[in-house]
């Protein structure tokens, strides 16, 4: 992993490395700041973890990347967010969300739809599709999310018959079916048992070959296990952002050290 | 009711339900015309009310701003609390002349080739009763549907939006989730329409007949009881009316339990997790 990083550093076009960059990003709820002046560049095709105590603004940051705050009337977003050097305002909110998928804290498959229909639920929004293509797509996405062997005989069954961990992997399959570049994960394992958590973590590790992943987590071991880079948020500010190994072994900031060693948080 | 309807049940048996003769003078009683009147007027009410109610429910739960949400929501709830006799009065003095002078001539001219849109043009009749019922059940259906749509967890909406759904697609997803709850609200509204007495009595025309024309006067189960019970002197007449009441009770009971089951299963789905 480190070698790969060094190789990337030596490449000429340095901007290619970054998939998302935010400049002076602030989000206010009812005039109160939740995050302030976040400057962060997320590297392409890698896993970036965001850690920090509750209420530090990690989820707020994540949700500003796919304009989820538009659904909250009291929220206002300042600053700029660029994806592949294009301001997200230029994509338009619908296209942006197709480009930037999101997996939520609690598995939220559509309860009235079957497993199959859940996977294609995002595709239906994009228009016309042929059944054969959809069948292939479903198989590919479920394979990618490691669910295919478990559900291939009962694709037409309601998604609610799956376990929590399977539901979450179904949500990931649903997200990658739309062909995003970036996947945002908001504490995707906090509602799951340890075995399901391990499966999701393996999945995250595999998915980074094709997608840029940003994962918000409470669990520092998880950040250490799955991520290449880690950002530490505290009280709405970005305290430190570095390689995951650096954050956990040799952080620059004292606050980071205290947090990762469990002195507070 | 079961005991008191014995004379009628023993004399007419099942033919009570299948005969449309209702002639107190000759002691001949059959409830088919009333059953028909009740069901058809309620179905007309549903057909008119359902699209309006769904629109109101979607507007109130998904689109309206805070001010509109509270005012319109309040008005809808007030509308549900207006006594039915007031609706009847309004129907008799406003709706009936309007139907007689504008709506029915127009419908007869444009759609008159369909037997449905024909009949005596006197203003009172099946269609007028259906419209009055629609106005009465719209607040109920929309208020319950709004609550059912609101009960859908935020995570479901976000899931749809995060996949790139437009607002309408997200609303469609919400409706799909609220399907059985909305169905329950509809059945509940239907139950109310079936049992409604005063407003219907005042505008339906009160004639025991089965006619294809929606403008023709008809009669409903609740209306015939309200109209004739005070004047029924013969035992067989009284017990026939009681049997109509028994039928009405059975029908509304079935409809209401169906609605409760549907609403219960709709809310349970999310609690189970």
What does this structure look like?
- The complex is a heterodimer of chains A (265) and B (273).
- Chain A has 12 helices and 10 strands.
- Chain A starts with a helix and ends in a 5-residue tail after the last helix.
- In chain A, 39% of the residues lie in helices and 25% in strands.
- Chain A has a single domain (2-260), classed as 3-Layer(aba) Sandwich (Rossmann fold).
- Chain A is α/β, with parallel strands linked by helices and 265 residues long.
- Chain A has helices at 2-10, 58-65, 88-91, 93-99, 115-124, 131-144, 148-151, 164-177, 194-207, 220-226, 244-249, 254-260, and strands spanning 18-29, 32-43, 47-51, 75-83, 86-87, 100-103, 182-186, 212-216, 229-234, 237-243.
- Chain B has 12 helices and 2 strands, in the order ααββαααααααααα.
- Chain B is 73% helix and 1% strand.
- In chain B, a hairpin with a 4-residue loop joins strand 1 and strand 2 (28-29).
- In chain B, 44% of the residues are buried.
- At the A-B interface, helix 4 and helix 8 of A face helix 7 and helix 8 of B.
Q: What is the terminal-to-terminal distance of chain A? A: 29 Å
Q: Which percent range describes the beta-strand content of chain B?
A: under 5%
Radius of gyration of chain A, whole Å: 18 Å
- Supply the number of structural domains of chain A: 1
How would you summarize this macromolecular structure in one to three sentences?
In chain A, 39% of the residues lie in helices and 25% in strands.
Spell out the key features of this protein.
heterodimer; A: 265 residues; alpha/beta; Rossmann fold; six-stranded mixed sheet; four-stranded antiparallel sheet; 12 helices; 10 strands; globular; disordered N terminus; B: 273 residues; mainly alpha; MetI-like fold; two-stranded antiparallel ribbon; 1% strand
